[in-house]
Amino acid sequence: MKITAKITMILISLAFSMAMHAQDAIVYDYRLDEKALNDNKNPIPYEIRNSELFGKTINVFGASRARNHLREITDTWHCKLAQKYHMLYRNYARNNCCIAFDRRRERWSAPINEFYEDMDTCDYILLIGGHSDAEQIIKGKGTVEEFEEGFAKLIRGFIKKAPSSKIAVFTPWKIATPPYPDIIRIMIEQCRNFAVPVYDCSTQSGIYVWEMEFARRYFHTYQDNTHLNAKGHDLFFNKAEKFMLGL
Fold it and tell me: What's the pLDDT tens digit per position in 25-34?
């Protein structure tokens, strides 16, 4: 009987923060129940409990960089942020999807500026993007001008859909190959036009995609210029956390 009870408690504990599918999102619920909130034996640190992030809901959009490709979403800095601040975390990212370009004919995804409307209500919207759009332009399947129009459409749509939500945008890493510099410039300029906070990962992240030894240590592979591994996400965490706390 005691063994059965212990197994039941373990299963309940695991289920509390396990991933669930809600529409097209992967969901992790790290919020605390009333008992945990008032547990004097395990008090919540002051800086956590009094943070703007504490107990809030965050919706994440992007492609494989936000979805973490074939690795666990729980390895990402944004999921770790949600866990640290006991948030409800929803990841709507889709591998190989773009902000502005439709890839359904390639059996991938509609652009984010079309499917974002399906999201549930939230306190924070996090957009991590630009890489897939740049690659489509490189392949001749889109233009910089079309990206600018599509990106503005998405930001405008976020504001209309969730006017009370705080929006944060993260640009691609520093990649010299065209059109990456233009993609980054457009994201920064358009975010400023809409008064949306933007983190320029090409100049502020400390992520050196062009350095092979760095890539071997912090990316999925040394040839990868997009996807951080778990160590890479840990490396970037403090900078991203500081930015998110300042929204």
Answer: 999 999 999 9
Q: To 5 degrees, how large is the angle CA 27–CA 53–CA 124?
A: 60
**For residues 16 and 28, what is the distance between their CA atoms, to the nearest angstrom?**
9
Q: What is the CA radius of gyration of the chain?
A: 19
Q: Which two tokens stand for residue 225?
A: 């210029």
Taking only the tens place, the pLDDT of each residue in 33-76 is: 999 999 999 999 999 999 999 999 999 999 999 999 989 999 99
The three-state secondary structure class of 179 is coil
Cα–Cα nearest to 131, from 71, 180, 93:
180
pLDDT bucket at 24, cuts 50 / 70 / 90: confident
pLDDT digits over 155-189, tens only?
999 999 999 999 999 999 999 999 999 999 999 99
HEC secondary structure over 75-142: HCHHHHHHHHCCCEEEECCCCCCCCCCCCHHHCCCCCHHHHHHHCCCCCEEEEECCHHHHHHHHCCCC
Could you give the CA distance from residue 117 to residue 227 in angstroms, rounded to a whole number?
A: 26
In a 3-state reduction of DSSP, which class is residue 149? helix
Q: What are phi and psi of 4, to 5 degrees?
A: -60, -40
